[in-house]
Design a protein that fits this description.
The protein is of the alpha+beta class. It has a single domain, classed as 4-Layer Sandwich (Double-stranded beta-helix). 16% of the residues lie in helices and 40% in strands. The strands form four sheets. The chain has a six-stranded antiparallel β-sheet with strand order 5-6-3-10-13-8. A six-stranded antiparallel β-sheet has the order 11-12-9-16-19-14. Strand 1 and strand 2 form a beta hairpin. The protein is globular, with a radius of gyration of 22 Å. The protein starts with 6 loop residues before the first strand and ends in a 6-residue tail after the last helix.
Amino acid sequence: MTAHEIDYNIYGEEMQYVEIELDPQEGVVAEAGSFMMMDDGIKMETIFGDGSQKDSGFLGKILGAGKRILTGESLFMTAFYNILNGKRKVSFASPYPGKIVPIDLTQYGGKFICQKDAFLCAAKGVSIGIEFSKRLGRGLFGGEGFIMQKLEGDGMSFVHAGGTMAKKVLQPGETLRVDTGCIVGFTQDIDYDIEFVGGIKNTIFGGEGLFFAKLQGPGEVYIQSLPFSRLAGRVLASAPRGGGKDKGEGSILGGLGDLLDGDNRF
């Protein structure tokens, strides 16, 4: 194996974290901000790109970092190494309520495609790059699904699914239509495209967006019930207007209560 062989345990229900056990000199790479805790003897190192191209020189590191810019991620990732003789553990937490999904790349032909915000951490040696769209429709109308990340190698990777996660196994020719933001990831044999919803009423009044993601088998698809964009939109919609406390929240008077209090922010 070119990637480090790591052991792991996933804990929790709604807000999960993954605990990774590292043998001496083993390492794991993670997105900035996902770190939770680590044992004594773990060395933390900020690396350029994903660190999978160890001997590619400065130019290779620049290219690897450039791929991450295109996905909207940071130039840097964080690597954690066990520098002592015994086993040591390091843990990474979910960014918001959902499930952590372990992906063994050896079971998927060495490649898995996921949403750009889904990746959490992976064994050192796994390459985290971008999956370019070769179809015009996908590029113009794909929204959150336009630029996908690809995880390549022969090690363990971990992705995060918001809310409840569903796994669908599609047979050859079988089709599944999904909201573009609800895709977590899929195997490399899945044919992925964008499809117009259609219908005047659906387009104007549907409220579900103009396009579906059309996924066609064979392969496996992971779907999340709570995309981060949907969660963020609900939070912003519920935020108090004007930055103050919303006195009408939870009150049967609602906006009328604000008016009676002299706060007529409408």
